[in-house]
Amino acid sequence: MAQVLVVADDLTGANATGARFARAGMRVAVVTPERVAAVVEDCDVVVANLDSRHAAPDLAADLVTDVVEAVWPVGLVVKRTDTTLRGNIGAELEAAWRAVRERVDDRYRVRALLVPAFPASGRTTVDGVQLLDGVPLDRTALAEDPFHPMDTGRVADILARQTGLAVRHVPARQVSAELLAADLTAGDEPVVLCDAADERRIEDIATAAADVHRADGTVWVAADPGPMGAQLAYALRLRGRSEAPGPLLAVAGSPTELTRRQLATVARTGPARFVDLDAARFTDPGDGHADDVARALVDRLTTTVFPEVVVVRVAAPDGAPPAEAARALPARLAGLVADALREVEARAGAHALPNGLFLVGGDLTSCVLDALGVRDFEVGGEVVPLAVHGTLGGGPLDGVPVVTKGGLVGDDATAVECLAKLRRAARARLLQVRAEVPEHVLPAARPGPGARRG
Predict the structure, then answer these.
(1) For residues 192 and 115, is the Cβ–Cβ distance under 8 A?
(2) What predicted TM-score, i.e. pTM, was given to this entire model?
(3) Which fold would CATH assign to domain 4-241?
(4) I need a surface site. Which of 70, 184, 412, 414 has the fewest CB within 10 A?
């Protein structure tokens, strides 16, 4: 049965939002309201395109109620909103909230989590005001929109024209995860409106909302143009039943004591599956150890999914490996990694390939990038000094985020920091799909790939 229902008011938004879930490995169908019941058993995410943006508010609300009834129960209902808050925003949000409220035990609170920001397309929410490229909606071309002219950018005021549901505003501020969860828990207003100016803030809100759900049973109805709903589904651990995205892959070709301590910290602090190799045996052509390592690596990669990490590390129980073995190790290990990825793709498909790559050791990094046929490395910045993050260009991991560092860089916690950065970048890539923006509003954005239609 479906785990997520997305209710959209136009086809462009429906497709773009569905594509976010599809890239995260979930089976998605975008359908008309009449078709939702027909696909609910075969998909992880049902996206209902109501085509209701220009409909009468009462009709739009009735359509929302009907599709929730047809698909229920699901783990999350997402009311997809226009990025510039046009259409029947208040009427459809209230209908979604009421439809879920009627189907949830009275012991639990039902609240709409409204995060209208879409930072990648220049839509942000600051002090409760929706901004387009930093400008309030009513001071943009939307003020003269032929269907929905905007005379205010205040989100609560836009909602109030179609709904009497009370709104609690949660401003953006530097707080801990616990305090953010407390912000989301406070009050009894049905709608919680959150400011957000970047994707990290949206991820933090989603994580806090999921924590609140697990702590007191609060049932959330997500209301947003795309980013928040997908992040909340992820934070609630709603996963696809097939084509789950592949894990992170860390390859540490450095046998230094610091690297060993860093990887030991990784083992203590998060989900990780290790593949150990003995450098001396691995580089000996007459030893079968390399074949054992290759089989173990393919097995780990095909049975582990994101956000876990598979770590290849050098084990040297008798101290540093011989100099000849150390010199031969980077090229041999890079070749093994490239062969393993080809085997993973052949067995499980491209979706099972690593969704992030962490390389430790300068020589190893060069050899792995060569072996994978990487054409370029787009540098994004530093995690810590001399630990660089970026994006791979070309080869089987084209577009995948990467972090590289030397074997003597950082302290015992540095590998954990690098993997955290990599995990955030991989999650953003899996969930990020740019939505189409009408040309008369902002012609610079382009549509992302659409999910299939039912």
Answers:
(1) no
(2) 0.68
(3) Rossmann fold (3.40.50)
(4) 412
